[in-house]
Amino acid sequence: MASISLFILLIVLAVLLIIGTPIAVAIIGSGLASALPSLNLEVTLITGAQRIFSGTSTYTLLAIPFFVLAGNIMNQGGIAKRLVNFVDAILGRVPGSLLLTNIGANSLFGAISGSAAAAAAAVGSMLKDGEETSGYDMDLAVAANGASAPSGLLIPPSNALITYSLVAGGTSIAALFVAGYIPGLIWVLGCLIVAYIFAKKKGYTGTGDFSWKKLWKATLGAILPLSLIIIVIGGIVGGVFTATEGAAIAVVYSLFLALIIYRDINVKDLYSILLDSAVTSGIIVFIIGTSNILSWVMAFTGIPQMISAALLGVTENQFIILLIINIVLLISGTFMDVTPAILIFTPIFLPIVQQFGMSSIHFGIVLVYNLCIGNITPPVGNTLFVAIRVGDRKLSSVMRYMGAFYFAIFIGLMLVTYFPFFSMWLPEVAGLL
Fold first, then answer.
1. Quick one: pLDDT at residue 402?
2. Spans in the chain with pLDDT lower than 50
3. pTM of the predicted structure, to 2 decimals
4. Could you tell me the sign of the dihedral formed by the alpha carbons of 416, 190, 320, 169, in that order?
């Protein structure tokens, strides 16, 4: 029965996505259709409705709308410029400093805003004129911008990790947040190395000499936005407040910076910010609710157990199984956004990796890392296409450089996948495990 349900699930999901059905509707349709071989239509519809309601009736889920709102306030509150100046003050004398500044600022702004696309748009547009004036190859600049932007989704606070926590049976959000730091930095480091090699090869110079005065001034400008991460993550890890309370504090803090300290937005701007945040949050929360149908159907029909038996029937080598899972996630991530992919694949693969002792925290980081690569990979690759639009380039010309960035990021994925140390060390040191 599980094989029939899985076949129906995959066929219906694929057809609905191909014809352009919204992902939430596709999840509902495929989930309910795959339950019909085991249950009658009435029970399936009633249970499905109950699952949507229960999937959205979680206190922790409130963290996502708050973090989305805080990110939107930060996006329009002049934060990106201050982060760019801060990173440039550190890396200004290094060859190809504008490329490196773009990468570093993307990681900081992406972490604060919670959006890879927002980071690519804000930071990329800010550095575009300087890169053109300095004679940079703009295809390379766009590739560096796009490739580095998703790193912020691994560095907390991260809505992707909150979503995973909800699906993964309440895995500690604090532990996931802390676990994301080193993998996020590995992604950033890989991009920095590639950009530096290209910069040296092309003979790019830095923007100027290092100055303690310049660094001090830039630090003063960036310290308040950066302190948001310290306050929120420190409070969650220290047990001072929950992730949801931390998200609410992030909203208040970002409003304080944008309205009172920097004054880059006014009260009139809040309406559009609130409206945009409500729409984005509504989409995310509804998808999470609908995915609860999928989780129920999989548990009821035994689909994860069947897939696990099939994988273990091919090989019992955990390294090969992880490689297969990575390949599936990498391919799927090129067609799906991060949130729905987390909701679909977590209940399938998490029980499998737990059979050979992999921590749910470690797997969560591997999962998000994989799906973030899809964020910059055609044919969907939303963040990459945002970077291309900002840089006014063509996909074909940018892809000449993306190969090197993909290689570095993939090496990082292998490190994170096969060496648990990179994900588990900080949570262990923080006493979260």
1. 96
2. none
3. 0.88
4. positive
d(CA 244, CA 249): 9
Q: Tell me what pLDDT residue 1 has.
A: 60
Selection from 155, 164, 219 nearest residue 184 by Cα:
155
Tokens, residue 250: 């992030």
For residue 413, the Cα-to-chain-centroid distance in whole angstroms is 14
From 118, 145, 125, 116, select the one nearest 390 (Cα to Cα): 125
Residue type, 128: K
Q: Which two tokens stand for residue 56?
A: 């959205």
Q: 394 vs 106, 140, 398, CA distance in Å?
A: 21, 12, 6
Return d(Cα 373, Cα 330) in angstroms, integer. Answer: 7
**Phi, psi angle pair for 400, to nearest 5°:** -60, -30
3-state secondary structure the chain: CHHHHHHHHHHHHHHHHHCCCCHHHHHHHHHHHHHCCCCCHHHHHHHHHHHHHHHHCCHHHHHHHHHHHHHHHHHHCCHHHHHHHHHHHHHCCCCCHHHHHHHHHHHHHHHHHCCHHHHHHHHHHHHHHHHHHCCCCHHHHHHHHHHHHHHHHCCCCCHHHHHHHHHCCCCCHHHHHHHCHHHHHHHHHHHHHHHHHHHHHHCCCCCCCCCHHHHHHHHHHHHHHHHHHHHHHHHHHCCCCCHHHHHHHHHHHHHHHHHHHCCCCCCCHHHHHHHHHHHHHHHHHHHHHHHHHHHHHHHHHCHHHHHHHHHHHHCCCHHHHHHHHHHHHHHHHCCCCHHHHHHHHHHHHHHHHHHCCCCHHHHHHHHHHHHHHHCCCCCCCHHHHHHHHHHCCCHHHHHHHHHHHHHHHHHHHHHHHHCCHHHHHHHHHCCCC
- Retrieve residue 33's tokens: 């259709």
CA 300 – CA 310 distance, rounded (Å):
18
- Listed residue (330, 412, 390) closest to 141, CA to CA: 390
Separation of alpha carbons 176 and 157, rounded Å: 10
Instruction: Give the integer Cα–Cα distance in Å for 391 and 420.
Output: 37
Angle at 288 between CA 284 and CA 293, to 5 degrees: 150
User: CA 320 to CA 299: how far, in whole Å?
Assistant: 25
Q: Return the closest-CA partner of residue 78 out of 221, 276, 268, 218.
A: 221
